[in-house]
Amino acid sequence: MKNCICFIGSQLSKQRFLLAMAGAAHGSRQCALTHRYYQQWNWRRTPRGPAGLYTQQLTRRHCQHFSKELLQQESVQRYLEKMIEEYRQVTQRLNNTALTESERRTMSRRQIELSPMATVFQQSQRAVKDLKDVQAIIESAEAGEDTQMLELAKEEQKGIRKLIEALQIKLLQSLVPSDKHDASDVIVEVAAGRTTGGDICQQFTREIFEMYQNFASYKQWAFEVLNYTPAEYGGLHHAAARIAGESVYRHFKYEGGMHRVQRIPEVGLSSRMQRIHTGTMMVIVLPQPDEVDVIIEPKDLRIDTFRSKGAGGQSVNTTDSAVRLVHIPTGITVECQQERSQLQNRETAMRMLRARIYQQLIEKETEQRQSARKLQVGTRSQSERIRTYNFTQDRVTDHRISYVTRDIKEFLSGGELLEELISELLKSAETEALLELVENSRN
Known about the structure:
There is one protein chain. The chain is α+β, with helices and mostly antiparallel strands. It is 53% helix and 17% strand. Strand 10 (395-398) and strand 11 form a beta hairpin. Helix 4 (50-72) packs across helix 7.
């Protein structure tokens, strides 16, 4: 690990760096971190333009090599063999008519859990066999000087190699148990920082909220605003939205935390100073539970009503339509004043309260099972600083995996660049989770 950091900080040539990195990572658990540090070095030393495109392609090739290296590790291979053998035993036992109903249910559940991994493993084996067959055809065509057959066989070989690379990545992902909340919808809350940055925080909070709204549209998910409290100069104090669609929580679960901005403000009081200001805002991501997951007793609730704040039409400010709910056992408080109807605001506030209580239960479970070695993407603490948006340098940096991307405006549009970062976070988390599973299986 120290070697990797040393290489990045020095003036080594690209060739020497790659050789040194491979030497440091080969056959060790530190292999999981090589993509992270290679990518950091890559972005800092590569200019934008054609050279940058070349290096991104090189990074993708390194990712494929990284997957192959990880699968070739002896400990990972042993773990994979152990899982395949368990799948075979479970399948064999299910054919035993002497099983009780309870045992059969348990075995069936386990078979369903292991089935995706076993399927990808079988596909990988078939692809490797096909590659050997094509290699034999190539050797035969070269010996017989059959140019047409040789060309067709090499094209087929290229396709099979790409398939094997894709299956290797898929196999690694299948070895990591999925988060039971991955398929859930989410409630995303954003709040401007209170101690630093002033109006710059509020403007940045609005931009982040709009980024997630655009990302939901990009992914064709439903986006429902639950609460929206605007600020001066077009900023935003606080907002909450429900996002519904396929695997929403899986994509958003690493967005929770503190986001930092560095920029020269364009509007507001801070813009008069014409110097770089630093501000923060907080993102909270809550999986949306079913009603059966969180039961709230009426006696545990305190319900307050009050008049909505800010502009919003004639009846918004003249009736007690806003609702505040306090969950007495936990002290969790939520407010909603988005709708003109008190009943609608109360229903929305209940959904937000249920999600917050559910998140608290999840955090308790996580603390109990979390090992001393944290995921590379961090502890997922809502107070952790996860990302910096530097407008003066046109750079977005995710501190958990040292990921850097350019073109802030494009990133804030909530499209491809944001999805690429989320994909890298998921890959990093899955790799660390796999290494932890392998390590725990040896104990």
